[in-house]
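Practice record 12: protein with magnesium ion.
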Amino acid sequence: MKGLKGLLEENPSLKVFIYAGKGGLGKTTLSAATSTKLSSMGKKTLVFSTDPQASLSDVFEQNVFGKGEVKLAENLYVMEIDADKKINEYVNAIKKKIIDMYRLDSLPKDIEEYIDSAAAEPAMYESAVYDAMVDVVSEGKYDYYVFDMPPFGHGIRMIAIADVISKWVEKITELRRQAYEYGRVAASMKRQKLTYEDEILNELEYIRGRILKFRDILLNTKTTAFMMVMTPEKMTILDTERALEMFNSLGLKLTGIVVNQVYPPDLAKRADAPAYLRRRVEEQKKYIAEIVEKFGKYIIAVVPMLNREPKGMETLKLVAEELWSPSKKIEEYL
Ligand SMILES: Nc1ncnc2c1ncn2[C@@H]1O[C@H](COP(=O)(O)OP(=O)(O)OP(=O)(O)O)[C@@H](O)[C@H]1O
Ligand SMILES: [Mg+2]
C-alpha cells in the first residue's frame, strides 16, 4: 500500500482530493485528516464540505458552518458551505433575472411556483455543491483542495448528463446565433428583444462552461484523486461494486480506496479478548479478504478503528499518519 504519500509521489500534479462513498464510513474524518497532513507540510490547503450537519465543524471542534473560508491552523483552511442558503440565493437571482429580462413588475404565480418546486429537488442541492466546488477550484488560491462529498445520491451521475446538457446548450446557442444573424436586419426595430435574447445566450454559455469545468475537475486524473471510503462490511462491498460499475459507465476513474474503521487484529489475539470482539474481528477479516480480492489494486491505505472518536487536531493526526504512510500492509490485517 502506497499511502497518500506514494500516491502523490507517483502523481505530483495532484491538486484535488475527493472523498466519496456511502454515508457514515468516514468521508469527513478522512477529508479532515488529509487536509491536516497536507497543510502540515507547508502546503496551503482548503478542506471543503456542504454537509448541512456541519460535520467538519464537529471534527475540527470549531463552528465554521456557513462562514466562508476560515483559517484553522497554519496553511489549513476550511469552508463549510450552507447549501440551503446558496440555493435560496440562486433561486432569488433566477427570479430577479426573469423579472428584469422581461420587464415584469412581479413574477407570474405559476412561474414562481415552478421555480420554487425545482429548488426543492435534491438535484438542486447537488448542483449547488458542484457549483461551489467549481468556484473554489477556479479561484486557484490553494495548493490542495480536499472535498468531503455528500453521500452518493445520484450526484456523480451529473457528469453523464453534462454531455447531454452541453450538446443541448450548443444547439440552442447555435440556433440563437443564426436567429441573431437573420434578425440583425430587423434589429433596429427590435433592438431590445435581441438584447434580451443575447442575455439568455450568455447565460446558457455560462451554464455550459460551469458543467464542463465540473466534469473536468472530476475526470482529470492528473490533477484529481477520486477516492472512495470503504469499511469491512457486506453492505459497503456491495455498494462499492455498484459504484464502480456506475463510474465505469461514466468514464470516471477511481483513483483509490481507503479501508477505514478496521479493528486492529492483534486485539483479538490477546488471551483476555472478549468473545464479542473476537467475533467482530473475525467477521471483518472475512470482508477484508473479499475487499482485497475484489478491489485490491485500488487500496491505498487502511485506517484502524481508533479507541476514540477521531475529533480534534491531535487525534486527526493519528488518522493522517496511517493515511499518509500506512504502518501495516492490508495483508497484516487478515
Ligand atoms: N478510524 C476511525 N476510528 C474510529 N471512529 C471513526 C473512524 N473513522 C470514522 N469514525 C467515526 O465514524 C463516524 C462516521 O464518520 P464520518 O462522519 O467521517 O463519516 P462520513 O462518511 O463523513 O458520514 P456522512 O456520510 O454522514 O457524512 C463518526 O462518528 C466518526 O467519528
Ligand atoms: Mg460526513
